[in-house]
Amino acid sequence: MTDPENHESGTPLPPHPLKRFALDWIGAITLLTGLLSALAVALWDRYGARSATALVVLVAVTAHLYALALWRRFHGALRQREELLEQLNAAHARDARQALELSKLSSVAERTSNAVIITDRDGRIEWVNRGFTVLTEWEPAEVIGRSPGAVLQGPGTDTITVARIRAQVGARAAVDEEILNYSKSGRIYWVRLDIQPVIDASGAVTHYVAVQTDVSAQKSIELQLERARDLALSAADARGQFIANTSHEIRTPMNGVLGMTELLLRTSLDERQWRLADTILRSGRHLLDLLNDVLDYSKMDAGRFELVTAPTDLERVLKDAQGVVAETALAKGLSLDVHVRPENAPRLMADGARLRQVLVNLLGNAVKFTAAGRVALSVTVQPGTRGELRATFSVADTGIGIAPKLQRQIFEPFVQADAGTATRYGGSGLGLAISQRLVRLMGGELLVKSDVGQGATFSFALRLPLAVDTDTAQSGVASLGALGLNVLVAEDYPVNQEVIREFLSELGCRMVLARNGREAIELYVESDGDFDLVLMDCRMPRMDGFDATRAIRDWERNGTRRQVPVIALTAGALATERERCALVGMNGFLAKPVTLGELYDALAPHARGHAAPSEAAIA
């Protein structure tokens, strides 16, 4: 049996001391056996063969057995030593391979611009490359034996990210995180951190290799985009608030203008006076339409616009749209035609108000841009699938037309066909943009066919379900009757106080005025249940309508009086205002400027003999 070679030098290892001792012992036993043999011969000659032979054989056998047992014992120890040496050699080989791999890794890492860190299993730095020094400003001698976190992290480093990294490292998992670090001089920078554990054949972690990629430039862009987004959202909120405030401030006096004009038209006027008053009313409503366009676009832009689907009389919608532009078309000498047969105009499930708005926009544009000739609105209705009908709407004119290259941009907000259009024809440039969005919300697409000097045709098709409700009754101002309601009105604007007083008088109602929310609460509490209904302005001094309604509802819950219907009468026309009204317990919503017919429709269900309204409904 030969001894294993020395792993490092390749020379045979010297015999183990135990082996040498065993060999020496065997030699001694052999020598003793020879001596015993000589002794046996001598004893043979003197005492006889039997005694001498027996004694020598006994001693020899005993010596050989003892030597054999001793040899086996030492042979086992030698085998254990050889196995340990083999394991030691294997460990040396693994260490050599790992050292070679780390050497190769270090050689590669030294040539990369990324920062590379090699730590031991306890996270202490053993080696860093040149990229680490360039990025962090720390020299290798300054960081060896320290943990990367102690060197690179600072007050701005996210502690949650640090805890997450530690947990992943503790679980021997790979790490991929972005983290804020600090250089030696205190410069802040961002890195993408990639940490991989180095695991040996036994499954134990021997090292960790961390690669840090500088992502400060990308992070700066991300932060700039976030700030830009926040600014845009802030600007959008500010714009929405500005539009809401502007709408409120315009609607408040417009309620007086339109309300008083409507009342004036119900008095005895000669033909010229009636025409002048009617012109004021139509002009005011046109101004209101422009304001509504801006509000509608703002709501669409904020994603807060919703359609209200209900049974809709298609023929009624077409006639209403025609009536809005009929006077202007007549004044210009244009022929205004509507092509639809009653049997082709069924009642459908649609948002009638928004459909009317689209048709009014298209007809208004057609009349505006047509100097002579005709404007025609045509509708064709064809059977569809699943109980739907396919209704195709078309508005054609003989006006100035639109160049093909400009037809796409006319659907953009605040854009008209050319720079001189707004100056010559007026308008906000929102009509077609809003119409396109409304048509898309209804499931269609607004299309245009035109050429310069050849007129224009705008069309869209909608799939609309048939309405189950066949009730065609319509309310109108001419049929208004006396309602006989006692109404508490909370309104701070003097002109609107007068308008509402006159409207309620026309409807046969008694009015008690409160100039702010606090007065409204006091009058209601002191009335002993005399009021049938409250008309509540939302924005008033001392206490607004929201707080006043909330206080009224609290007082009713703590007492025994029935809950009085409260209807908002406000210049705030945005959906958020409606939602606030519902949350504080109001039962209805009227946006200023309000017409006599709208006020009648809101009050009539609360008159004696009518069904009680739903307390949660918002009109």
**Range of strand content:** 15-25%
Overall geometric form: elongated
Overall pLDDT? 80
Share of residues in helices: 40-55%
- Sequence of strands across the biggest β-sheet: 2-1-5-4-3
Question: How many E strands?
Answer: 17
**Low-confidence parts, pLDDT < 50 over ≥5 residues?**
1-11, 470-478, 610-619
- SSE-based structural type: alpha/beta
Total DSSP helices: 17
Radius of gyration: 49 Å
Q: How many angstroms separate the termini?
A: 106 Å
Please describe the biggest sheet, giving its number of strands, its sense, and whether it closes into a barrel: 5 strands, antiparallel
Description:
The radius of gyration is 49 Å and the shape is elongated. Strands 2-1-5-4-3 form a 5-stranded antiparallel β-sheet, sandwiched between helices. A 5-stranded mixed β-sheet has the order 7-9-10-12-11, covered by helices on one side. Strands 14-13-15-16-17 form a 5-stranded parallel β-sheet, sandwiched between helices. It has 17 helices and 17 strands. It has helices at residues 17-47, 49-109, 130-136, 140-143, 148-152, 159-170, 216-265, 271-301, 314-331, 352-368, 419-425, 431-441, 494-506, 517-526, 545-558, 575-583, 596-603; strands at residues 115-120, 125-128, 175-182, 188-199, 205-214, 310-313, 335-339, 347-350, 374-383, 388-397, 447-450, 456-465, 486-490, 510-514, 533-536, 566-570, 588-591. The chain is 50% helix and 18% strand. Strand 16, helix 16 (575-583) and strand 17 (588-591) form a beta-alpha-beta unit. Helix 1 runs antiparallel to helix 2 (49-109) and helix 9 packs parallel to helix 10. With 619 residues, it is of the alpha/beta class. The longest helix is centred in the N-terminal third of the chain and has 61 residues, at 49-109.
